[in-house]
Amino acid sequence: MKKDRYLFVLFLFFLLASSAFSAGLLLFDKSEFAARRQKLMEAIPDGAAIILGALPPTGYNEFFQNNDFMYFSDVEIPNAMLIIDGKQKTTTLFFTISESAARNDGIGLELVRNAKDVTGIERVSPIDQFTAALSRLAGQDYVLYTSFKPEELSRECSSEKFGLLQNAMTFNLWDGRLTRELQFVKNLKDRFPQAVVKDCAPMIWDLRSIKSPAEIDLLRKVGRIGVEAHLAMMKATKVGVPEYEMSAAFDYISKKAGGRDIAYNVIISSAENHPYLHYYKHDRILKDGDFIVVDAGPNYNYYVVDISASYPANGKFTPRQREVYEACQAIQKACRAVYRPGITSRDVQPQVNEILMKRGFDINKDLFKIRTMQVGISHNVGMAVHDVSAGPRGPLKPGMVFACDIYAVFAKEDLGVRVEDTVVITETGCENLTPGLPREIAEIEAFMKKK
Ligand code: GLY
Ligand code: MN
């Protein structure tokens, strides 16, 4: 009896020790990743999903895992593979890495030695078991699911990358390569001709487009970093300053806060560059009278936000800058007041117009037409800045995170304005994940004066 009790206490001790051991190693609790895998399993009851891990960097760059792999495992080991089995409802993680290579890449040895406990993934196997595992699945009539879309690394957006790679490689007469993923699909079909191979990108993207409370919490933190970095950029802005100093200020604060990268190269448009919404050359020196649009977001722990702000280089709005800015700002505010679950962009538009009219704006002016038609529901935001698929489709749902982006460009006047925040749909409305920038004209002017 005594011995039993002793064994029980010992067992409890090991249980606690093992959870303490793995605590803090993952970005979210193990249960978060298990729930994501579970949802994918439910979507593929007739097969298994094979998720390819990112390859090692070929230059002296830091290794980043691809977003889908990270989403299901939080394992940052190069050349890893994941099989999420929808029939057996288990997951197997495949990797092989020496401890010295892991140490060199900053990969926790706890993860390498004890991946099952650290990740909560049921099975862990060396990578040389991967082929046998695939053969087993194919032999048991599993549908083989894998993403036909390219992996998304830092600063990348899968669907856009697909088009670019196809044009540069597959359709290029002097190249002809498939993307890595489509080559993998071809290899599966060649090797297992009887197997059915299906694209699971849409299923993964459906999951990724609804953020969990833990993800939303993290996005709030990323939002705070983004706002702080934007404020630093605003502080760095004055007549005579090169745009690259502004961009460097954003980079610095994002990295200082622990962000390993930024979401995309900082976009700064001024003067004749306003029509180019992704201008990131940073090659102008700010002049008196310039109006600037800055669009930038940090990447913190694989999550990003998207923020644009607009202000005059000399800190004082002209009447025309004021007119265009006020319109964009009013539309953005009206959109955020209207977003809620169940509403589509078509429903948003008349409600936004009503708010604007009540506030005394003339919505028939050129300044408003396109902007209120688009109602700012721009693109999804999450692990990528243009996150999974183009943007929210159909009615808005709680947990959807997207950019509310209002912009107006008057090329002949060298004027552009952009007011963009990242928002999440809540149960009853929407929350701005990137609050805290001076947005009203009086606030902007006061900030530019004070700094
Ligand atoms: N931040 C890039 C975009 O909004 O397209
Ligand atoms: Mn955007």
Question: Could you list some keywords that capture this structure?
Answer:
451 residues; alpha+beta; Creatine Amidinohydrolase, Chain A, domain 1; 16 strands; binds glycine; binds manganese (II) ion
Summarize the structure.
The protein is α+β, with helices and mostly antiparallel strands and 451 residues long.
List the helices and strands and how they pair.
Layout lengths: L1 H21 L7 H14 L3 E6 L14 H7 L7 E5 L4 E5 L4 H6 L4 H5 L1 H5 L3 E3 L4 H10 L3 E4 L11 H13 L9 H12 L5 E3 L1 H9 L3 H23 L7 H14 L4 E2 L4 E4 L20 E6 L1 E3 L2 E2 L2 E6 L6 H20 L6 H14 L7 H9 L2 E4 L20 E10 L4 E11 L4 E3 L8 H10 L1
Parallel strand pairs: 1-5, 3-4, 5-6
Antiparallel strand pairs: 1-2, 2-3, 7-10, 8-9, 9-12, 10-11, 13-14, 14-15, 15-16
The structure holds glycine (GLY) and manganese (II) ion.
Give your account of this protein's structure.
The chain has 451 residues and is of the alpha+beta class. It folds into 2 domains: 2-209, Creatine Amidinohydrolase, Chain A, domain 1, CATH 3.40.350.10; 213-450, Creatine Amidinohydrolase, CATH 3.90.230.10. 43% of the residues lie in helices and 17% in strands. It contains 16 helices and 16 strands. A 6-stranded mixed sheet has the order 4-3-2-1-5-6, sandwiched between helices. It has a 4-stranded antiparallel sheet with strand order 13-14-15-16. A 3-stranded antiparallel sheet has the order 7-10-11. α11 runs antiparallel to α12. It binds glycine (GLY) and manganese (II) ion (MN). Manganese (II) ion binds next to β13 and β14.
